[in-house]
Amino acid sequence: MKKLLVAIPCTAIAGLIMVGGLSASAQTLSLQLQAANYNPTTGVWTDSSGNGDTATFANGTLPTLAAGATPNGSSAVDIIGSNASYGVGSHFSLLNPISNGSGYTIFAYIEPTGSSGSRQALTGGSGSGALEYDVYGGNQDFLREYLQDVGHGTATVPTSSFSLVDLAVSSTLAGSFNFNGSPDGTTSSGTAFSNPITQIGNNEGGGDYFNGDIAEIDIYSGVLTPAQIGTVEANLTAEYVTTPEPTAWAMMAGGLGTLFAVRRFRRPQA
Description:
single chain, 19 strands, disordered N terminus
């Protein structure tokens, strides 16, 4: 049975970001890629954060849009990955690189389909020292690209159902993972990131590419508080896992259908 994750868009007001009703003035929603905003014909994934940071697919078969993929029937972007040699793997390139100045908080609702590369990279950079966040050996992992493996989770990320994963890491690499809303290991401190995030679904070199479904991925610059992280996780779960309430029109239509059925099959009076 698949799980679901959904993020409710945040509202930016004069630099103040409202995260599920929580003020996050020191953190900014830099990127929000929701499957419903992906165009499988052009390979363009439109950013709904308000920053216009379009992600465009390159090198490989265009991902499809899988309808009804999540537990509540929402769509997901199905990335086939690539058999390409190292250096030219499939990925989404960001129009505007995401600066590493204050660290990141990243949320993703994903269903990887095994490992075709050594790592299933969710994010990657444009040079050594950028954040590579991925699934490695079945667990969450992140590193300073080409330089240092910094953190590794303990929960197994399944390949037959969706999971909500997230990473909160400061500019000095101190941080933590969550898996389906629960803590999942910690990261060590070390040298700061030295390059921005430029790719989704791959690392800079192209050898560690993601295979599977992504319903949504959100990247905040800065580290959200535990309460804010919990709120975003709850919103994502409500969006992709919880079955929507029926609309008033649907309820009315159902009621009328029942009424007509009763009238149609009522026994005639003698």
